[in-house]
Amino acid sequence: MKKIEHVGIAVNDLEKANEVYRKILGVSHYKIEEVASEGVLTSFFKTADSKVELLQATHKQGPIAKFVEQRGEGIHHIAFLVTDIYKEIIRLKKEGFDIIDDSPKKGADNKLVAFVHPKSCNGVLIELCQEIKNDD
Asked: Which keywords belong to this entry (predicted)?
């Protein structure tokens, strides 16, 4: 694990949340991106070396819609940047963690991602992120 890559926050209304976080962070979002496979619209903010990802569901069957329905808006996950996501998945499995994604998939912000189940992380969903290079 290299560092915390971002904190993901589930929201009902991305436009309203963008305005809230623009005021809090003092900067505008730098990117809005849809990840259709996850049923989510994302918005990213960056200050210094920290990032916040806002997540709004695009359909009611997606994981963000289910999260907001069950828990309301709030912190959805913490993402860690890794050098080799494949090795991290294997390492964490050996350590006894319940890995949701046996293989990484394309996520937002030019990343390969895989998730670790919150049941094995004290109730926190962990996202592993690796920058996508041309050879990934």
From this structure: Isomerase, Metal-binding
- Give pTM, 2 decimals: 0.92
In terms of Cβ atoms closer than 10 Å to its own Cβ (0-12, 13-18, 19+), residue 87 is exposed
Find residue 30's DSSP bridge partners: none
> Cβ(41)–Cβ(56) under 8 Å?
yes
Reported confidence tier of residue 135, pLDDT bands at 50, 70, 90: low
CA–CA distance, 80 with 128 (Å, rounded to integer): 5
Q: Residues 61, 65, 67, 72: is their CA dihedral positive or negative?
A: negative
pLDDT in tens, 67-108: 999 999 999 999 999 999 999 999 999 999 999 998 999 999
Expressed in angstroms, the distance from the first to the final Cα of the chain is: 19
CA atoms of 23 and 69, how far apart (whole Å): 26
Mapped onto helix, strand or coil, the DSSP state of residue 113 is strand
Between β-strands 31-35 and 105-106, what pairing exists: parallel, antiparallel or unpaired?
Answer: unpaired
